[in-house]
Design a protein that fits this description.
The chain is α+β, with helices and mostly antiparallel strands. 44% of the residues lie in helices and 17% in strands. The chain is built from 14 helices and 12 strands. The strands form 2 sheets. Strands 1-5-6-12-11-10-7-9-8 form a 9-stranded mixed β-sheet, with helices on both faces. A 3-stranded antiparallel β-sheet has the order 2-4-3. Strand 3 and strand 4 form a beta hairpin. The longest helix has 19 residues. The protein is globular, with a radius of gyration of 22 Å. The two termini are 21 Å apart.
């Protein structure tokens, strides 16, 4: 098929360009252990991955992306600092849109660098921006770390903070939790009846399912404790909403976030990291005066991003997914590093979309 040949040729060119930037080419198995991905993302991953199994290896998933196996490889064997590149198919289930590809090529560039995360962020973004410049794409950027820092700074319980952090990547659920924890939404009637019972376990029918009576009791105790927790203040809710509403060019977004940090000091460190990143981007020739920044950008992507995030879009083809995406995933190295961690950032380009847009980098 000529089109597939053109896509593979474009993938080879992209990977060669990343190698020219100092990246070591690597490979990753197409079948990945499902247990690792389920531990990271929970059962939600089943909705967007192809799952299979065999008698010896248990559940396996067709590779949904490269980041997890690359991190595993680096944490087990990699030296520091390190730059990697790869090219190969990834697989995503499509249940709502039959026109979206369920198998496509990705070419990626990943940096594991401890000393200057801002410079690494800028390097990945600027390199991909330069490679895609002939296509006239629109760049979007954000920073999940700012919202995470804001949640960590809330004057509420650790349990509520953990719940909010867990659902940062699910905007509707996150907003529902904020509404509930701030008292803007009443406690559901069924839960109110349960909490009104002084000894709810005494009225439980025989336990059916995987949870024991002790686990159910612990959950009910947690609900009681949450019901007795004071609501998150209106001022803190307003500050969270102000952060999520930031959508400007990077220079003005930084000013807005610095203003918010005056009333919410918990985000100061994250805002300082944004400032350092913008300085590093400017030093590489990126026009930060026109670079878009949206504080909520990236919240529906894979859940390993915990800092800088970006994407490149074709304004003339709004029907297409992003041509390139990427971001920082420090926490993922901590989860997979078995006691070790290292700051890491990377990005991927879809060569099929480059070809569809008539381009060749």
């Amino acid at each position: 098929m000529p089109e597939r040949a053109a896509i593979k040729a474009e993938a080879a060119r992209l990977r060669a360009a990343f190698e020219g930037a100092g990246a070591q080419p690597i490979e990753a198995a197409i079948l990945q252990p499902a247990e690792v991905l389920l531990d990271l993302y929970g059962e939600d991953i089943r909705g967007r991955a192809y799952v299979t199994s065999d008698a010896l290896r248990g559940e396996q998933m067709l590779r949904p992306d490269f980041t997890v196996p690359v991190v595993q490889m680096h944490m087990a064997h990699g030296a520091e600092p390190a730059r990697y590149t790869y090219a190969g198919e990834v697989f995503r289930r499509q249940e709502d849109d039959p026109d979206r590809a369920s198998e496509y090529l990705q070419v990626g560039y990943e940096i594991f660098e401890r000393n200057n995360p801002a410079a690494s962020d800028a390097e990945v973004f600027a390199l991909i921006a330069d490679m895609l410049a002939p296509l006239g794409l629109r760049a979007a950027t954000g920073d999940i770390g700012i919202l995470m820092a804001a949640v960590d700074g809330l004057n509420t319980t650790d349990r509520r903070k953990r719940a909010l952090r867990r659902h940062i990547w699910r905007p509707r659920r996150f907003r529902a939790l904020m509404d509930r924890f701030s008292g803007r939404l009443p406690v559901p009637e069924s839960r109110a009846e349960l909490l009104a019972d002084l000894d709810p376990l005494a009225n439980l029918p025989p336990v059916i399912g995987l949870r024991s009576r002790a686990e159910i009791g612990a959950r009910i105790t947690a609900l009681h404790e949450d019901a007795a927790t004071p609501p998150i203040s209106k001022n803190e809710v307003a500050l969270i909403e102000s952060i999520l509403d930031v959508r400007e060019t990077s220079h003005f977004a930084l000013e807005q976030l610095r203003d918010i940090a005056v009333d919410m000091p918990a985000i100061t460190g994250a805002v300082d990291r944004l400032a350092a990143r913008l300085d590093a981007l400017g030093a590489l020739g990126v026009d930060i005066e026109t670079l878009d920044f949206e504080a909520s950008y990236g919240r529906t992507q894979m859940e390993y991003y915990d800092g800088f995030v970006f994407g490149f879009y074709a304004p003339q083809r709004p029907d297409l997914p992003p041509v390139a995406t990427g971001g920082r995933y420090d926490a993922l190295t901590r989860q997979l590093g078995q006691g070790r961690e290292i700051p890491a950032v990377g990005g991927v380009i879809r060569p099929g979309l480059v070809v569809a847009l008539g381009g060749q980098t």
